[in-house]
Amino acid sequence: MFLETTPNTYNYMVAGYVISFLTMGIYVASLYIRARNLRQDEQILEELQKSDPKS
Amino acid sequence: MQSKPIALTVLDIVSVIVLGISTYLALVFAPTEAVMGDVQRVFYFHIGTAWTGLLGFIIASIAGIAYLVSKDMKWDRFGVAAVEVSTVFFFLTIVLGSIWARPAWNTWWTWDPRLTTAAITELIYVAYFMLRQGLDDPEKRARFGAVYTLLGGPSAILTFLVIRLFRSIHPVLTNAAEKAQETMGMTGNMKVAFFFALFAFTVIFIDLIWHRVRLGSLQEKVEQLKLNASS
Amino acid sequence: MNPDIFTPRDTARPSFPGAVLAIIQKDLTAEFRSRELFSAMLVFSLLVIIIFNFALELDITVRKSVAAGVLWTTFAFAGTLGLNRSMAVEKDRGCMDGLLLAPVDRSAIFFGKAISNLVFMLIVEAIVLPVYALLYNEMRILQPGFLGVILLGSIGYIAVGTMLATMSVQTRMREILLPILLFPIAVPVLLAAVKVSGGLIAGAEWPEILTPLNILIVYDVVFVSIAYMVFDAVVEE
Question: pTM here?
Answer without folding.
Answer: 0.85
